[in-house]
Design brief:
With 286 residues, the protein is α/β, with parallel strands linked by helices. 35% of the residues lie in helices and 26% in strands. The chain has 7 helices and 14 strands. The strands form 3 sheets. It has a 6-stranded mixed sheet. Strand 3 (101-109) and strand 4 form a beta hairpin.
Length: 286
């Protein structure tokens, strides 16, 4: 925990330099690149509490945790569902105390007997402000045998910035990013993405930002879970593909200021989106 605190404080100092060179400041958001200990819910909550306290000191408006934030990515749905019953009210209380928006991943039971992989945002007034279900369960890891597919692309707006969210494996499907892009300024991608496919993670995040001319915020974890190593590499990417913040392998809280004006100016200066042919794409995909 001491290492996390030291890295976060170092990040605050370096952020002061970045702030001077930033464009129009609009909203400060932060990535909580945490070490998640598999199925150690209470231990992971303690780390989250420390991160939330630091984010409050940095005047963060929206703090984002990785996929399955406090249980880790696993197929023990009984464990994760039980933890999920506590997660939402706990985060609602934390958001109220810290007076900021909090994004986090959790697991919910369904009537079918399977579960849903959720990512939610709670508001400073304690309300459940945003909620979505992972669209593409990761069949390579048998996630589809335990989790239902999501069927919605919700969006939300905070301080004039429009957000969408896609979870981990969803990153490999460009169609859903294209569908979200006209309605969003920033697309969140919370994940538990293993180091062995680090190249894919970094490349696809950048590609999705460039293709859709949106901010992309990839929120990954570090450490080892069930024999898989996670190297982090969480990052903020600008609508033109510029990497604004690269967390590399450090655990901690990493901040960046985003502006909806930057998205509008990028799209106006290089109007790629007007040449899209959605009707044609639908015809060849059927």
């Amino acid at each position: 925990m001491e290492k996390i605190l030291a890295r976060c404080l170092q990040n605050v100092k370096s952020y002061g330099i970045m702030k001077k060179n930033s464009e129009v400041l609009s909203m400060r958001i932060a990535l909580a690149q945490t070490e998640i200990f598999s199925k150690q819910y209470e231990k992971n909550k303690k780390t989250a509490l420390s991160i939330c306290n630091l984010a409050q000191a940095m005047e963060v408006r929206l703090l984002l945790f990785p996929e399955m934030s406090f249980t880790g990515f696993n197929m023990d749905t009984d464990y994760s569902i039980a933890a999920g019953l506590d997660t939402v009210p706990w985060m609602q209380k934390l958001a109220t105390t810290g007076q900021c928006y909090l994004g986090f991943g959790w697991v919910k039971a369904t009537k079918s007997g399977k579960a849903e992989n959720h990512y939610s945002i709670v508001a400073p007034d304690g309300s459940l402000f945003f909620d979505m279900v992972k669209l593409h369960p990761f069949s390579y890891a048998q996630e589809d045998q335990f989790f239902e597919k999501g069927n919605a692309l919700p969006t939300c707006e905070i301080d004039g910035i429009r957000f969408g969210c896609l979870i981990c494996y969803d990153l490999r499907f460009p169609e859903v990013f294209s569908a979200l892009a006209p309605k969003t300024d920033c697309i969140l991608v919370p994940a538990n993405w293993p180091e062995r496919r680090k190249l894919h993670w970094c490349s696809l995040l950048t590609a999705r930002a460039i293709e859709n001319q949106v901010y992309v915020a990839g929120i990954n974890c570090v450490g080892t879970q069930d024999g898989l190593h996670y190297s982090g590499d969480s990052r903020f990417i600008a609508p033109d593909g510029t990497i604004l913040q690269d967390c590399r392998s450090a655990s901690g809280c990493f901040v960046c200021d985003l502006s909806a004006k930057t998205v509008a100016e990028t799209r106006q200066a290089f109007p790629v989106q007007k040449d899209r042919r959605p009707d044609f794409y639908r015809s060849i995909l059927l």
